[in-house]
Fold:
Amino acid sequence: MKGRRADKAATTVFWALGIIVVVILGFIIIEIFARGLLTALNPKFIFGKPEAMKPGGGIFPMIVSTLYLVVLSLIISLPISIGAAIYLSEYAKKGKLTSFIRFCLDTLATLPSIVFGLFGLALFVVYFQWSYCLMAGAFTLAILNLPILLRGTEQAMTLVPDTYREASMSLGASKWTTIRQVVVPSAMPGIITATILPIGRIVGESAAIIYTTGLFIRNIPVNPFDTAAPLAGYVWYAQTEGQGDYLRVVNGGAALLLIMVLVIYFLARYLGRKYQEKRLLGG
Amino acid sequence: MSEFDKKMEVKDLSMYYGDFKAIEDISLDIPARNITALIGPSGCGKSTLVRCLNRMNDLINGVRVEGEVILDGENMYSPGYDTIALRRRVGMVFQRPNPFPKSIYENVAYGPKLGGIKKKDELDSIVEDSLKKAALWQEVKQNLQESGQRLSGGQQQRLCIARVIAVEPEVILFDEPCSAIDPVATQLIEDLMADLKENYTMVIVTHNMQQAARVSDFTAFLLVQEQGEPGRLIEYGDTNTIFTNPEDERTERYITGRFG
Amino acid sequence: MEIRKTFHEQLDELYRDLLKMANTTVETIEQTRAAFASLDSARAKRVMEDDDVLDHFVKSIEETGIELLARQAPVAIDLRTIIVIMRVAQHLERVGDLCVNISKAIVNLEGYTVSPWIKENMDEMFQRSIKMTLRAMEAFKERDLTKAKDLSKMDDTVDRINRTFLTSYNKESEEELELVIRVVMIARFIERIADHAVDVGENVSYMMTGEFVEFG
Structure:
């Protein structure tokens, strides 16, 4: 009897916790959409130019900045992560060095993003004299995302069964060829999944880009060394400045951010599944 | 045995994992175009021994080898020996079928592509030829683009055999190839091995004595005498003699099921 | 789809070897019959020399049979077939030895005159024993239980003729004693050839039913 009651109690508790999480998430989404969805979906808003003092501005350059930032940052951090993951999972001998590297990475992961922002400011904006620009932001975010991305890609590679490596080597492939032709392709779905969280972070990151990228621009950034204004930072800026119809901008911007994150998330999962299917069916 | 050429010779081979000696002073011949079986109870070192024959044990950290393994007159453990070329000549089929998560075609084409073959017609013909030799062509010729991992266990193992054949090895090593496969599929693979004898030298590790009796021409019996000791070669001879009238009492006790 | 084709191919070969041995055995009995019919010592000596062939046959069949048993672990019909092939080979080899014994007696009969009555009856015994051997091998090839059982009746006839040799000779004079002894021996040998044929039939029955039954 005791067993069954305890079991029922536990099940109820877990259900309750699950429901609480869903409710909280739902609440956030509903609140944000309630305030800003209409604005966010308004084409004038999406494609319009921003106004600093006057009401009625749009946020197109901000959207472009954000997307540009995602692409740039991934271009920088993906190769480094995959490379480092390959080193850690395939080449490094388990020992003090790898433990130390992991320790450093774990520590990096816990730092608040503003620390990265200030670091980026000091190094890229000031010391390299790049001034506020996309590149500074991209590099900063790359460093910020490094621990998570590295962890994820490394895990994806460790999950590739050793038997594939054995089979490849027994056919006369070198270690490097095995990694290139068998391990990395097999780990691809996992790597793609591991990229989702960093992308979300880039889209939503404010503290790190405030000090490195810029806050307000009128025109679409073209050159990576142009100043830019990613959406998350702009929302903060608009709120702080409190000028014009900032509330509309803030709510609309927040809603749009949420939409972007959701779209990216589902897109990544869709792509991941497609890649998986393609691999299972051939090629 | 004397009427066959020696494809490989193992001379006083010992192998260590770190400080632990796994096998000691093993010497035997692998006659060309015959099947040599390695039998013995679990842990006797037969898998260790067979993995020394294509230097797959090198991939494990802390492994040390003493003695020689001679392939066509050259010691493969001499310094500077090209292990990549070695594994082209001495292929391996593993205990659990391990096709790559790629299509059937790509699995078989993997080896030849490593060797630099790029033209599609050449690859097509190699893939077809290898699958035919592995007795798998009829079953998969319509579905070469499907994933190799969708095949049944027995088919996957034959795919792995085709993959090895595609590299045109001289020797094929089988490390308990049928332990993860059902009996009918096992028999198919045994029949396949009998056909392959025409062109390839084979070594099979098996814990199934009846399989060794059915399939092999020569048999080697390995044993760890007491716990902690390395595996040693107890007896080696033609299969018929080993299974009708072995010389060593320990061999007889093992094959009659009185221990191990 | 047949699997274990190597084993079944080997089994087929063993089977064919037995049939070859049987042909050679029948040929041997025939040669012995012809040697007696004309009291041809030269022919009889050839029979004795050629016995090697049957010895080689039985040895090879035995070795192959044992190898198949040891290595292939056959069961059911395969197991019984191999056992029967090995036993039949032994019977055939014994028949060969009996022909050698008959041939020795024929050589020792050189110079004697054998009556037509003896020649006729002996020839009949020879012919019947050849027929029985052939019938036994037919039963084996065709898996025919009826033919196997026929052998029992055929053997009765051979036994009967054998007995007449004994009963018809008590009153002859002494100088023919050696002749009588040799003739009776030869008849006895042929009677045993017939017995071996019956044994082969019993083995065929075992191969088919798995039960061992003695005929007649």
Q: What stands out?
A: Chain C touches chain B through eleven residues (CB under 8 Å). Chain C has one domain: 5-209. Residues 5-209 of chain C form a domain with the Methane Monooxygenase Hydroxylase; Chain G, domain 1 fold (CATH 1.20.58.220). DSSP finds six helices and no strands in chain C.
